[in-house]
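User: Before I run my own analysis I want an independent prediction to cross-check against. Here's the chain; please return only the structure tokens and, at the end, one sentence I can use as a sanity check.
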Amino acid sequence: MAVRAVAIVSGGMDSVTLAHHLAREGFALDLLSFDYGQRHRRELAYAEATAKRVGASWHLIDLAAAGIQALLAGSALTDPTVEVPDGHYAAPSMAITVVPNRNAVMLAVAYAAADSWGADAVALAVHGGDHFIYPDCRPEFVAAFQEMERLAIGKEPTIELLAPFSTKTKADLVTIGTQLGVPFGETWSCYKGGELHCGLCGTCFERREAFDLAGVPDPTTYEAA
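Assistant: Structure tokens:
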């Protein structure tokens, strides 16, 4: 029997690459995606398409319907009164894109599902470039969360928390995804959530930079050249 993993897949290029990576590694996959009121929720359609492509089940968890958006005021991703900043991802202004405790909330749900379904692992696509701005993407968070869930679930063997890209750069993920045949044109990064990638926000900047550094043609159409 294949090892079963519950993977958090947003529809962005990192998590879509994760799904393809796990599928190539032979995992039986269940993909979880979350609507938490993010203005770029169009990414969810790409997550669903990814599940079909890798032969996984797909489950959309509607946290917005549960009222979580009202608890996340102040983040540019969930608060319509806060504008998404333009500029490099490393700029101090990008701190406004932090959604409080987002990965912890998603992982708690994923672990509950994994325990219920008898899965062996939970996986998420944090990478090294996220560490400086998002505390819940750092290796120490991943290690501590797995230990917390070991105590919370209280079963052996422990459900492993997989974060295979935690030391990789975004450019590394482009290289890995290209080798896996990931259709990057069918992923979404832009935080503004328009019809096209804006080309100016931090995630668009990071996306463009990653393809350039990896030496891979960028299939994305941007509003701003």
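Sanity check: The mean pLDDT is 88.
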